[in-house]
Amino acid sequence: xxxxxxAVAEQLARVLGWGGLLLLLTVPALxxxxxxxxxxWQFRADPGLAGxxxxxxxxxxxxxQSINLPHTWNVGGLHDYLGVAWxxxxxxxxxxxxxxxxxxxxxxxxxxxxxxxxxxNLGEHEGGFTxxxxxxxxxxxxxxxxxxxxxxxxxIATIPGFADRGSPEASSPEVRYDWxxxxxxxxxxxxxxxxxxxxxxxxxxTAPLADGAMIHDRIILERALVPGxxxxxxxxxxxxxxxxxxxxxxxxxxxxxxxxxxxATEVAVSLKLSHPKLWxxxxxxxxxxVVELTDRNHKLLDESSxxxxxxxxxxxxRHLLVNGERVRLTGLARHxxxxxxxxxxxxxxxxxxxxxxxxxxxxxxxxxxxPQHPLVLDYAxxxxxxxxxxxxxxxxxxxxxxxxxxxxxxxxxxREMIEEAGNHPSIFAWSVANESxxxxxxxxxxxxxxxxxxxxxxxxxFVSFTDDKLPKLARAAESAANDADFVMMNQxxxxxxxxxxxxxxxxxxxxHLFPDKMVxxxxxxxxxxxxxxxxxxxxxxxxxxxxxxxxxxxxxxxAGAVLWCYQDYKSPRNLWPGESxxxxxxxxxxxxxxxxPSYRVWKKLTEPATITVHWVSAPDRAxxxxxxxxxxxxxxxxxxxxxxxxxxxxxVVDEKGKPLGGGERRFAELKDxxxxxxxxxxxxxxxxxxNVALQSPTGLAVADEVLEWPPRAAAQQ
Length: 717
Fold this sequence. Notes:
This protein is an alpha+beta fold. It is built from eleven helices and 37 strands. Strands 3-2-4-9-6-7 form a six-stranded antiparallel beta sheet, with no helix packed on it. Strands 21-28-27-26-25-24 form a six-stranded parallel beta sheet, with helices on one face. α6 runs parallel beside α7 and α9 runs parallel beside α10. The termini are far apart. Mean pLDDT is 93; it is low at 1-29 and 167-171.
């Protein structure tokens, strides 16, 4: 761009009031770039369906509201609106160099979206949680308008759709699913620019070797025919592939010239890593695979970067193993929901919630009924959390599961999720449904079709689904669980599923039906509507945790347990009597993220080690020392995982905060109970406070204790 171009663009911005205009001025003619388009959109609801007939796809109507993305209209005045709404955005693009390729990307739109650029139909997308893009190279002008028509109404063949499984509420043909229907452009929108050849996607798989690991990268390259430019049948493109280690240094590379025809071309590259750092729960080491495309003149056409990890996850003898070490894990589910953002979550809300969930020792989560925001997947990668993502086939009937429209849509949503998220090392399995009619011929056929689809896309990961009716089976062959790689059991004994005493017979029945399968308790907890008020509900939640966790731990074949759920979430169902809209009382924090007593109880129950402490002192004298006993959980515990490179930190302060003693002890491998002692110099102190924490290699406190002197009861006498 010349100075004159910039001046013209600035003038246009002032005259037209077009936000985001100058953002695009930095787009290079060739090479890979991304330009965010989240700011300065216009929004208008369309309850009368006037937009199509009035030409809103090519002309912004009056009466719009200014908003930024991500956005949902179901927070605020339109909180309960089910129907059609429109989004509009103006932007300016300078002339593109010959050979430039431009795509318009949507991170997610809920639910049915129809997109136009300058009045030209780009296409449609059905689904609410996966990304998609359009080639807009030939449709761009200097001045552009995006129009997006979105319909968030559920149907019998939408996913998510009406919960028609046959519950008592399902006497109505339009039973909503158990979370709020947030319509809108709920994730980011952006443009990417590349040369006429670009990287469509990477699919990275790792295979361990005795002296390292092989990294197999299946790279999809795309080439466009540029109008006005003579077509070369097989244009030679240099493909440079580099794997960077956790330290940022190049660990392996490959370079080759590929004759690229128009359309898609697959390139398979294998790199060997010598002595790689393995991704695991305590050492979530990540590698980065960079693919660069250059033309015959060495000009950069595109660059793609994907994070991945080197690790193995196995199921062996009904046990879960990460890199050959057995683990038994716990965590919480979490809806993408808050009163201030709804489904249109931003980095701050996601980071806060997952920091809080990690403080609750989350190492496993489902994490909820639908594909997750990329920031959630990145967080799990960086913090060592195993995930089982799911598509939102929620309480579907056999008729729905047998509907060819539903199957085709489910397969497409699963393919989109795998192509978008499949390189994340935190993901070890995929789930194809929740609490649906999987113990029917139609349900079994649905699962087998979905499993076969996933095997073609991602042959290395496990496939399952969650079910809440497995104990009612007479034979394993009656359920699709018989074909799953492992069993996921939702159990709410003490509320939804019957008396608390029925849990043990139910677990025994699962063990009898599936004697060769590992089991994960994919949901457990206590729903508030089974109590008189929220205070009583949380007391019952605490009792459920304390009573049931030992029962699950005692069964060697249960590899994990996920509490439902982290926060109270908005829903049209499962509310207090008389409510048709509200927040389901089910979390360890409320919708405003205020902690309930159950938060502290779950945190204590899921510590991977226990710490006992006492003062060392003569009678009636201030302590002169401390004695600690650190006991790691064993394989008979839930949770359990090997503790490598942990450290114990302790400190003593007086009533004024003055340090009187402290120390630390490091453990290369904490397998057995360890005693630790230390000296304290109380001096004239009137009170002492001992703080002890066991920290993971990432600095997370996984167990802690506090001890005061004199004891608080004695001090009050």
